What we know:
The chain is an alpha/beta fold. It has a single domain, classed as Protein of unknown function UPF0759 (TIM Barrel, Alpha-Beta Barrel), CATH 3.20.20.410. The chain is 38% helix and 15% strand. It is built from 15 helices and 10 strands. The strands form 2 sheets. Strands 1-2-3-6-7-8-9-10 form an 8-stranded parallel barrel, surrounded by 5 helices. A two-stranded antiparallel sheet has the order 4-5. Helix 5 links the parallel strand 2 and strand 3.
Amino acid sequence: xxxxxxxxxxxxxxxxxxxxxxxGASERKAPATAAGxxxxxxxxPPELYALAQRLPPTLRMGxxxxxxxxxxxxxxxxxxxAQQLSRRGLEAYGQHPLLRTVGIDRGFYRxxxxxxxxxxxxxxxxxxxxxxxxxxxxxxALVRGEGGRGREPNPAFLDPxxxxxxxxxxxxxxxxxxTGALVFQLSPLPWGLLERLxxxxxxxxxxxxxxxxxxxxxxxxxxxxxxxDTAWLAPEHLAHFADVLRSTGATYCLGMHARMPPLQxxxxxxxxxxxxxxxxxxNLNPLHGPRGYDEAEHAYAxxxxxxxxxxxxxxxxxRTLAGVCGHGHNAFVTISNHAEGCAPLSVxxxxxxxxxxxxxxxx
Length: 363
């Protein structure tokens, strides 16, 4: 029990420590040979490569997507349109020494095919892993109108077969070994379902248990569940939620979002699932409230610098990552521009804290 209680603050094991670049990382060390598709990576300083070597190879950090012109000089070598970067920027992004994962959220609105996933996989190094968000078709309890207002119950909510056919199977087929975390981010539930959360948890168990095994195609792959209602973490539901995840080999995705409690209040669920991987999506600074994406966009665009640093969140997340990766487990972290203002700079700051903690870990 002491090890479990201590886990997220004590990276005792040296298993998985940095110092040796993981397979495929050397492919990111030559920005001058950038993709011949018109988007070239920035010229990164030697200290950025040195920092990457100090990180555990099981830690993959990145951004929630990659199509931001404001990252000129940070990720790109010059000025490109958002459309250019959306279509052609991933190969350059994948050469950044710290960016070893990225989120694919567009499938939330329309399921992606195996061939679309394969096109993404072909643009990144072998050690790169994707964090992919499941389609709303199976993760939203409501069918929504254009403004996001729920219109009627969604009959496909948590449908196991649809989840397999429209998400898990095409992602595995297309991404293969580059599959990281396949995230079922469950939209806020209507009040009637929140009152029957134990029933929803059993439906979730059925969905997760029905998915094909990931490890044959994707040795690092993991199913993860992210929620947007605090009720899932309430004492009366926490043990049930943990049992659903543990019994199906899935994990909890730490959702750093204004709709959810602070990180320290989400960690008890992760501890119940120990040992195992960590998945985290840092989506939105709570300063802007649960519906604050528009406000954050107005405040932070063009996303070229940190506006609202969150040192306490950084410190706790770094401590957690050092604990998990220090024991040899995988961790996948994606950070949005809406977290602090500039996702690549947030990643670098977090990497520096993790590296410092790993360097002082007790052997």
